User: Fold these one by one.
Assistant:
Number 1:
Amino acid sequence: MRIDVMTGSVEFQRLPKTVVPRHYALYLHPDLVGLTFTGHVICDLEVKSQCSTIVCNSAELEVTDVTVTDANGVTQRPTVELSAELETLTCRLQQPLAPGAAQMRLKFAAPLTDKMRGLYRCKYTSPCGEERFAAATQFEATDARRCFPCWDEPALKATFDITLVAPRDRVALSNMPVSREEEYPRRPELRVVHFATTPIMSTYIIACVVGEFDHIETTSDNVCIRVYTPLGKGEMGRFALDCAAKILPYYKGYFGSAYPLPKLDLIAIPDFASGAMENWGLVTFRETCILVDPVNTSTARRQFCAQVVGHELAHMWFGNLVTMEWWTHLWLNEGYAEFAMYLSTDYLFPHYKIWMQFVSECYMGALATDSLRTSHPIEVPVSNPSEVDEIFDGISYDKGACVIRMLHEFLGHEAFKRGMNLYLKRHQFGNTFTEDLWAALEESSGRPVRDVMSTWTRQTGYPVVRVSERREGTTRIITASQRRCLADGKPDADDQMWMVPLSFSSSQSPSETIHKVILSERTTEVRLENIGPDDWVKLNPGAVGFYRVQYPPEMLEQFKSAIATKVMPALDRNSLVDDLFALVQAGDSSTVDFLRLARSFVDEDEFTVWSCLLSSLRRLWPLLQHTEMLEPFHAYCRQLLRTIHKRLGWQQREGEGHMTTLLRPMVIAHLVSFNDQPTLAEAERLFRAHQEGTGTLHADLRSAAYRAVLKRGGKAEFDMMLKLYREAEMLEEKNRIAHALGSIPDPELLTSVLEFALSDEVRAQESVFVMISVSANRLGHELTWDFYKRNCQILCDRYKGRLLAQLVKSLTEDFTTEERALEVEQFFVEHPHPGAERSILQSLETIRLNAAWLQRDRQALSEYLAQCQ
Ligand SMILES: [Zn+2]
C-alpha cells in the first residue's frame, strides 16, 4: 500500500513547556464589510526555566509589533519567525528570560474567509433582502491559532478577557456575559464590548460571534439560558430552549456539580461545518441541529435536535471543565458526551425509547466500521494537526459510547455515577488521560476497570465470540471462544484478545440476564443450571457487550419461533440479524441464507429491528446496482415491506408510539427507493395535493415524497423542485429538497445537480450531501466520481478535514471491482488528501470486500432472486 496514514513531511512536536500562558487579554475587531479582521493580544506568561525563545501557535495570520516584557518591566523586541508548515510563531530574544512572570504583546490581522474555521464569515440575507455577513468562530481542533496567536493545545489552559468591536446594531457574544460596553473612539457606528473573565479553559472552546440574531430566553437553576436564531425565527428556538432548561439541572444532579458559568447561549450559525460545537457558554449549532418548527420539522429531526443539545451540554462538564490532555484521548470527550446524550434524552422523553434506538443509531455502525482492518483504536496516537480532524469519526463517537455503555452495565448505575462524580471533582479545571477515568471508576466500584477497559480502548477491533453447547440433564454447558471479528472473515495475524463481559439470557425469562462472566482467555466453559430441553440460551441480551456472537445452526434454529412470535426482546432479534449479516459479509454464511431468514420478519413491527434489516439490505444495494439482479432484488424488498406498510398506512394515528411514528417514514422511504409503483404514485398524489392546498403532506413524509416526484419526473418536475428550494425559508426544508434532487433518472439533469451543489445557492456544508445523493443514484454514481476527479482541487480547498473525508469515502466505497480499487488508489496517490487518508484506506478495503462478496455469492443470489419473483 502506498498511501500512508502518517504523512507530513516535518516531524511534529508539541509546544515546549518552558514558557506557558496564564492569562490572555484578547481584542478582536472583525470588519463585516471589508471582510478582514484585526486584533491584539496581551498574554501573561509563566517562564518555567530560563529561556531565550518563546514558541506558540499561529497560522495564516500577519503578526506585527511583538514585544516581550520581563518581570522587572524590561521590554525587548524579539526576532519573529512564522512557520506555515508547523503553524508556529517563534520569538528569539536578545536577553534570556529568567524564571517567573513575563508578558508578550502583539498585533495580528487576516482576511475573514469562508472556510468555516478560525474566525470566519457567514453569509445571510437580511429581512429586507440584502446580502450581509456575520462573523463566527470554530476552533476545535486546532484552529484558534487562525484567529489569534496562542498556545493552541488542550492542556495549556488559561483565563481569557475577551473584547469585541461590533457595529452598534449587531449582537456580539462570547463565552462569558458582557461586563461593560463603550463607544468606539470617533466611530459612533461601532461599540466596544468587554466580556467577563473566563474560568481557566482550553483555547479550542473559546468562541465569538458578531451578527444579527433574535433570541428567546429563560432561567434555569440561576443560569440565564438564551437561544439565538436568525431574525424573525425566535420561536423556532423554543424546543431547544426547553430541552436545555431541563437538561442543566438534570446534569447537575448526575455530574454532582452545577453548570460552572453564569450564562449559557445556544446559537444557530448560518455556515457551520459540523453539527454543533461545545464552546463553553456559547454553543454553536448548524441551523438544522437546533431550529424546530412545530409544523415543518420532522419527528426524526426534532428528536435529533434534543440529542444534539444533550450531547453539547454534557461537554460543559465532560470536555470543558475536565479536558483531555491530548487529542489521543478525544474519544473520552466524544464517547462520553454521546453516552450522556442518551441518558439526558431518555430523561426528557422516556417515550422515545432512546436506548433501544442506541443500538440501531450507534452500536451497529460502530461494529461495522470497526471490523475493517483499517479501523483504529479508540485511543489513537495523534501527532500532526491534520490527523486530528479525521479521528472525529464513528470510532471515537460511537464505539466510544458503546464501550462506555458496556462499562456502565458492568459496574451498575450507582457505582458508575459515583466514579464519574469523583473523576469530575478530582480533575475540575484540569486535564486528564484515559487512565484517570479508569482509576476513579475502579475506586468507586472496586472492580478491575483498567484491565478490562484497556483491551477495548487500546486495540483496534473487537471479538466475535463463537459458542457451542452440550447438555448434561438440565445443565447447559456453553463453550465460548473469542477471536478478532474481521469484515473479510480471514484470521487475524495479531492474535488479539479482549476481556469480554459475557452475559446470558434464556427462553424462561428472555429479558433477564441469568448469568455473567468475564471471558479473559481464548476459550471458557460456562455451566448454566435448570435449563429445560426446549429452552434456548442467548448471549449478550440487550446488545450491551461490544462483540458479535456466532452460533451453531442448531442453536440458531431454536431462536426461530422466538423471533417470529416476538417472545425474544426486540434488541435481541436485532443483534441476531446484525451478527448474521456480518457473517454473510465475511463469507461464513451466504447472502441467500440471510435473505431467507429476513423473510421470517414480515410480521415485525419494531423500529429498531426494521432499521437493522433495512440497513443490511441497503448494504447489498451497491453490490447489485449495476447487475441484472437489481430489479429482482427490489421486488424481494418490496415484498418484505408489504405487511408492515399496510399496517402503518400513510397517516399518523392518535396515541401511536414515537417509534411507530419513526417507522412509517422509514418504510415509505425504502419503498420509494425500491421503486414500489403504488407508493410512488400515492406519495406524488399527496405532494400535489399539498402544493394545491387541498391536503397536507406531513413533514415526516416530505423527503420520500420529493424523491418519488423526481423519480417519476423529468425536466418540469426538476424545475419545480428547484423553485421550491429557492422559496423555502427553513434550511431543513431546503436540505430535504436538495438531497432529493439526486433521484432524477436523467444523467443530464444529474450533472446539473452536481453543478448546483457547488453553486452559491447551496451552503458549503450542505453541498457535500447533495453530491453524495447524486452518487447514490445508479445513474449518478459514475458521474459523481468523474465530477469529483475534475473538481478535486476546488473541493479540497473548500473542505479540509471531516467533510472531505466523508465525501471521498461516500463517492468511492460502493465500487465493486478490483480494477476500481486500483483506479481509486492510483488517483489518491497522485492527488494526496491530507487528513482523509484513513477514510480512503477504509474505502479501498470496502471496495475489495464488495468485489469478493459479489464474486462469491453472485450465482446463488441470482438464482434465488429469480425464483422469488
Ligand atoms: Zn462532542
Number 2:
Amino acid sequence: MASTVEIRTPGEAAHALAIKSGKGVIHFFSSTTSAQDNTIPAEDENVVKEILDIDLVRSFQHNIIGGSTVYADDGRVATISEVQATENGFSNGAMEGVEATNSSAQRIASEIPSKASSVGSSKSDRESSLESRDSVSSATTVEQTTVRAVTSDDIYNFVSSIWATLKQRVDREYSPFHYSGPSNAENALFIFGSDVGAFGEVIDAAKSGDAYAKAGVITARLYRPWLGAKLIATIPKSIKKLAVLEQIRRKTTKWGPLLLDLLTTLKSGPGGGVETIVGHQLGYIAPETVPQALRGVFQNLKSEKPIQNLEVGNSEGPAESDESYDPSQPKVESAYMKILNQIFGQRLYLANALGSENVGISAAVAATPEFGFGSLIARKQRRESFVDEIRSSASSKSFSKEANAALAKWAAAAGDDKKVNELADGLTKLLESDGGAKSKDLLSKKELFRKESSWLVGSDAWAYDLGNSGVHHVVASGENVNMLIIDSTPYSERAAADAARRKKDIGLYAMNYGNAYVASVAVYSSYTQVLQAMIEADQFDGPSVVVAYLPYFKEDDSPLTVLQETKKAVDLGYWPLYRWNPQNESKGEPNFSLDSERIKKELKDFLARDNHLTQLMKKHPEFSSSLSQDYGSEVRALQKRKAKDSYAQLLDGLFGAPLTVLFASDNGNAESLAKRLGNRGKARGLKTMVMAMEDYPLEDLPSEENIVILSSTAGQGEFPQNGRAFWEGIKDNTELDLATVNFSIFALGDSHYWPRKQDKHYYNKPGKDLDRVMANLGGKRLAEIGLGDDQDPDGYQTGYANWEPQIWTALGVDKVEGIPEEAPPITNEDIKLASNFLRGTIEEGLKDTSTMAISAPDQQLTKFHGTYMQDDRDLRDERKAAGLEPAYSFMIRCRLPGGVATPKQWIQMDDVSNNFGNETMKLTTRQTFQFHGVIKTKLKSAMQGINQSLMTTIAACGDVNRNVMCSSLPTASKYHRQVFACSAKISTHLLPATTAYHEIWLKDENDKKTQVAGDAVQDYEPLYGPTYLPRKFKITIAIPPHNDTDVYAHDVGLIAIKGKDGNLAGFNLLAGGGMGVTHNNKKTYPRTGSCLGYVSKEDVHIACEKVMLVQRDHGDRKNRKHARLKYTIDDMGVDVFRGKVEELWGKKFQKEQPFKFQSNIDTFGWQKDETGLNHFTFFIENGRIEDTAEFPMKTGLREIAKVHKGEFRLTGNQHLILSNVDDADLPLMKEMMAKYKLDNVQFSGMRLSSSACVAFPTCGLAMAESERYLPELISKLEGVLEENGMRQDSIVMRMTGCPNGCARPWLAEVAFVGKAYGAYNMYLGGGYHGQRLNKLYRSSIKEDEILDIMKPLLKRYSQERTEGERFGDFCIRIGMIKETTEGKTFHDDVAEEESDEE
Ligand SMILES: Cc1cc2nc3c(=O)[nH]c(=O)nc-3n(C[C@H](O)[C@H](O)[C@H](O)COP(=O)(O)O)c2cc1C
Ligand code: SF4
C-alpha cells in the first residue's frame, strides 16, 4: 500500500516535471484530508536537488508573469527549443528527452521578469548549464533552432527520467499508474491523492466477509497526458469491475473527467478484462468512516444495476481552526531566505517557514512565533538527548571499531559547533557502511549530527504586540535561537501605516533587553551587511534578532520600487543599518556598530545612555553632525527664513526699488539667466535678491513689491525639482493676497519636446500656469509672460531678449546710463586655464568636511582625474524635504587599455568597490571598471587602492584622450596580444603629463613622497597645452571580423589589418565618429568615423597623436555642443582635415586596406584560441557586477579570480571574458562557474545583444531609467520572440538615459534614448555590425507604446525577412524607416512628422 513517505516523493517529482516541461498541474488536496496522516520524514535534500532545480522553482514561486504561472493552465502552449549543430562545430546536440528539458527550463527561466540588482540592477534568472553541455552561445553564431510544442511523449520522457533518478537514489519505483492488491482481484478502486493511503489500509485490513475484501487499488501518478496503454498494462486481467472515486466539487459535466478517461481507454479498445466501470463522487471522509464508505462503494459496484455518480462522504469537511492571532509570513521573504540558505546550507533549520516539515498543522498555527519558538526548543532538547545517546553509543558494542571511535570523537566535540559540523559527514559515511540496526537508527536522525542554525522567521506584524509575540519569549528565554523578522512597510507609507496602531521598534526592544544580539539589515541596501549579521547571529551564544527591511506596496512591485524605498529609508535614518553585540564589551570592543550613516531619534536616545553614542562618535567622527541633528520640516522652514532674512539685511544698504528674482531650474539654464538678471538689476540700482523658488518662504509673497520668476520645464510639463514645493504651496491657495505685488514670469521650454499635437500644452506649462495663478491671486503683471523656446534660432535667449527690456521699462530703470560691462560667464576653457594643470582647489575641497560636495570648477577638473561628482537621484526629494544636501558621492572610472586585467587586479577592484563604493562595479562600454557611490571622505583612499593595483584613473574622463579600447577576441589570443600592445602604447603615449594627479591623490600622510613614480614637478603639457582638448577624445581598436568595440563610434577608430604572415601589419584609421547629441537640437548629431587611410603599426600612435593635435587646434572651444572632432571634420571636410594631419605628421596615409566585419556583439560561452587556451565569455547584464540573493555573481567572480591563472578581458559590450584557461584547469573552472551559476549564457539573442548605460540613480544627466529598466523591457518582448521562433536571433537593442549616448545607441538596430522619466525616443534601422546609424522613429513614447510597436514588428520580421536579413536592414527595406547614410542626414526624413501647430 502507498505509504505517506511515497506520497511525498511523487509531489516532488510532479513539481520537477512542471518545471521541466513548462507546464504541469500538481494536485493538492485540502489539508483537512491529510490532517490525520502520519508526519512525513524529511526528504533527503540531495535527492530533491537532483530532481528539482530549486532555484528555478523559487523563481517561479516568486514571479507571476502577467497572471500566469507554470502551475496553471493559462492556455499557452509549452514549447521546446531544439538546437541543431552550430556552424562553429560546437554541437548542442539534437535535444530530446531530458536534454530538451534543460533547454526548455531555460526558456522558461528567461520568461521570468528580471530581478533587481543594485538594483542593482535587475538581472536575469540564472541556471547552471554545467550538466547540459559546454556551450558557445553567440547571438551571431548559434543556428537552426526550432521551437515546437511539448508533446505527450516529451512529458512521458521527462517523467520517466525523473522516476529513474528516484529509483536509483531512493529505490522507490514509480510508473504512470500504480496497482496494489492481490494479483487475482476481481474488483478494484481507482482513486487519487492522499485518500489512497487511508482507503488502502482499510482494504488491507479487510475481513473476508467485507464487501471490499480482496479488492485492488489503482491510482495515477501521471494523470495528464493520459497514457491509456500504460493503464491497460497496469490493471491485472482478473479485474472485472472498477469503482472510480473522483473529487469533483464544482461539476460542470455529468461525468467526471477521470471516469471519461477510463471509459475511453477500457471500453473503446482492447482494454483488458474490465467489464463494469462505475463513477462515484468523493466528498470528505473522516478516517473512522472509511470502512463505511468503502462498503457503500463496493456494494454499489457489485450490484446488478450500479448507480452512477453516487455521492460518498460529506460535501463539506470540518472547518479549519480560526486562529484569532494570525500573523502571515511575508510573501516576498525569498531574498532573505535565499541568503539564509546560501550561508547555512544543510545546517539551516527553519522552525516556522511555510513548507517546512510541520505537515498536518494548519499554516496559520505553524506561522505563529509561539509555535516556532516551541518547536525550536523541542528541537534543541531533541538534539541534547541525541548527544547523550551518542555518548552512550560510543561506549556500546553495537558498532564497528571505526564507527565507535568516530562516535567517541564526535561526542567529545559535541560542544564545539565547528568541529561537529566537520565530523558529521565522515561519521555518517562510517555508520552507513557499518549497516547495523543501531547505526540505522542513528542515521534516521542524521541531521542532528550537525549543529543546526535554527531560525524563526516572522513578519513586522509581530511588532504591534511585542509582549505577546514570540519576540518577547525568545529574548526573555535567553535561549540560543535566531529570529529573522522581515519588515515590509514602505518608507513612504510608514506614517499612514502607524496611524491606527503603534508599531514598536523590535530592534530597540531587543537591545533594551540587554542579552540579545540585534541587527538591523536591508538586503537592497547592503548585501554584505546582511551576510555579516546573519553569520554573527548564528555565532552568538544566546538569542539573536535580525530585523530585515524589504519594503513593498504590492506583491508584484518591481525590484526597482523595493530598492528605491529601501534607499530612502536607510539614507534618512528611518531604517538604520546596525549590529549590536552585547558580548563585545567583554572583548573591549564597542557593542554597537553603525553600518549606515544616519539614525533616528529613538535609537540615538538609546545609545546616548550608557556611553554608546560617545563611543560611536569617537569611532566615526564624521557621523557626529548627522547623529546629533534631527531633521524635519521645521528645520527646513527655519533655514529658509534665516537665508532670506540675511539676504534682506545685505540689501538694506542699497537704494532703489526692490526686485526679487526666483528661479526653478533642473540643468542650470533658468538659474544662470536669473543670476544674470539679478546682477543687471543691481547694476541699474535695484535692490535685487536672487534665490531658488524652493528656498523662498511663500508666506512672504504678499509683501513683495516686484517679483519675477524664471522657471524652466521638466518632465512632462512639470516644474523642475526646485520649483515644486513653491508650486504645491501656491497652486490651490486662496489665502494669499497679491493685490500689491507686481510680477512677471519668464518660462523656458521646448516647443517640440513632446511633439504630438495632443501634447502641445506641455510647452512651457509651469510658467504659464504660474502666470495664471498669480494673476488670479490679484498680482499685477510687470510684463506679459516671456516664453523661451529651445527651438528658436538662439534657443531660449531669443524670447528672453524681448522680455528683459520690458522689465526694466516697467521698473523705470530702462534708461540708466553708465552700466558697467558684464563679466563674461566662466567657461570650461577658463576653468582649465586657471587650474594650473588640473590642480584647481581639489585638494582644499577634499579637506572640507562641512559638505560632501566639491566646488563647481573642481567638479569639471576632477573629471580629468577620472572621477565625477554625482548625487543619488533616488534620494533627492526625500533629502530635500529633510533639509539635507543631496546625497553626493563620486563615480570613479579606471583607465584600462584594451580592458585587460589580471586576476589580482580583479580582486583589488572588488575590494575597492566593497571598501569605498556601493559594493557593485560597472564594466563599462569602454572596457573599464567604474565605481559608484564613493563618498568624498573615501575618495582618496579609493584612488590609492586603484593605483596600488597598478591601474590609474588619470584621463579616464575629461577633455583628453581617454581609455584606449581593443577588441577582446578570445579566439585568437596571439594576434590579440599584438593588437592589444598597440592600444597600450597609444594610451601611454597620449597621457597628460601633469603631476597634479600624483600630488592630489597619491601623496602619503607626510606630504613628501608620492606613492607612485613621478615626483618631478612637470608643470607643462607637451601634447595638450594648458587648455587640453576642446572636448573628450576617444580611441578604439577593432579586429575584424569583430566590431565589438564599435569602431565607427569614436573620435579615432582603428581597424586592425593582418599581414600576409598572419601578424598585425597596421590599421585603417577612421576619424570623427561620435555619439553625443542634444534632443531636438539638429545642429548636434551622431556620426560614424570617416576613413583617413591606412597606417603601419609602428606609426599608429603618432598618427593618433596628430589627429588629436589637429583637433586640439581646430576644434570649437566656444560651443561645447559643437566641440567634438566629428563637427571639426564635417566643418572642414574630410580631405582638408586629412591634409592637415598629414602636414603635421610629415607622412601620408596609405590606401585603405580591405576588411570585413560581421557583428558588433560578443560570442558567449567557451571558445578555444589558436594556442589551445580556453576562454569563457560571461553574460554580465549591462556590465553590473553585484551580488543579489538570487545570484551571488560578485562573490563567484572573486572566488574564481583567486584561483585563475590567466587574465580577465572586459568587452566593449560590458561583458567579461575569463581568458587563457589551460585545459588542465578547465574542470575546476567549470565547477566553480557552475557553483556560482556563472556558466549560464542561455539567454535570448536579444538579451545577449543588448546594452544599457548607467543612468539613474547616479548619472546626473539621466532623463530616464536605462540599466535598471532595459532588462525588464526585454523580458516583456521575449514572449513574442519565443512565439515567433526568434529566441536565439540576435537583434542589437540598446538604451541610454539621455542623448549623450554612452551605450552607443545610435548604432543599434533598435534603440531607446531617455527623454523624460518613463519616456523614450525610439530609433530604428542601425546596421547589425555597427556600420550604420539608425534614425528617429517615434518621440517620447512610453512602455505601452513601445510594446505596441515592437511586438507586431518583431512578428512581421519573423515572417517577412529574407534569408539572413538583419532586423535593422529589414526595417529599412519594408519602409518603416529611411536609411541614415551619414551623420549629417541623421535628422532628415524621420518617420514622425512633427506638427508646428500650437
Ligand atoms: C527631461 C526634460 C523634460 C522636458 N520637458 C519639457 C516639457 O514638457 N515642456 C517644455 O516646454 N520643455 C521641456 N523641456 C525643455 C526644458 O525646459 C528646456 O530645455 C530648458 O531650457 C531647461 O532649462 P534648465 O536648464 O533650467 O532646466 C524638458 C527638458 C528635459 C531635459
Ligand atoms: S547616456 Fe546619458 S544617462 Fe546614460 S550614462 Fe551616459 S550621460 Fe548618463
Number 3:
Amino acid sequence: MDRLWIGPAGPGEVWQENELSGDAYELRTAAGPPAAVTVAPLGSHPARCACASAYLSGASSPSGTVWCLIAAAAAVRVNGEALPAGARLLDDRDEILLGARRLVLSTERVARMERYVAGDRAIACPRCGGQLETGDPIVRCPRCRMAHHHEMVPGAVRAGDPDAGESCWLHDVTCAACKEQSTDLGRDRRWTPDEVAP
Ligand SMILES: [Zn+2]
Ligand SMILES: [Zn+2]
C-alpha cells in the first residue's frame, strides 16, 4: 500500500501516516502557525476552496500506481525544486514541501517470488552475474525491477536465516542492484520517514 507521510508540525510531534487507497487526493494547508496539513480524497472538500494547495493523482501501471503531483502554488516543492510545469511525477521517497510542512511519499512494495520469463535480451542476475533463464525462480526487486535468482529454502525469508545464502536475492539484506530495497520476503512497511536524512 502506498503511503503519504506528513511531517511533524513542531517539536515533540510525530510523522502522520496516510494510506493512499484511492487514486486522487487534495493536499491542503491551513494558515499557521503551526500550519495544519490534511490529505483528503478528491471531491470530499468544497470545489475550488482557496485552501487547496496541491493535488495528487494516481495512474495504474504494471509495477504499481504512478503518482503525479499537480500544484500551481510557488510554495509547493518536490525535493527542494519548484514545479515549473505545475506538475511532476513522483518517485518513492520523494519529499513534497507544502508551504512550511514536509510530506514524503512511500511506494515501497513487497518482494515476492515469481518465475522468470526471458525477453529478447539476455539478463544477468545482479548478485552472481549468471544469466537468468525462463522458468527460473526469481525475486524481482519491487524498487528497481532487477530480477535475482531465488532458491526457495524452507524457513528462509530474510538474509541471515539458515540457508538463505543459497538464494541470490536473500544473499544480502538489500537488493544487489539498487542497494535500497530490503530483501525480506512478504513483509510490508519496512520503511518509515524516520530514515529520511535530516
Ligand atoms: Zn544469481
Ligand atoms: Zn533493487
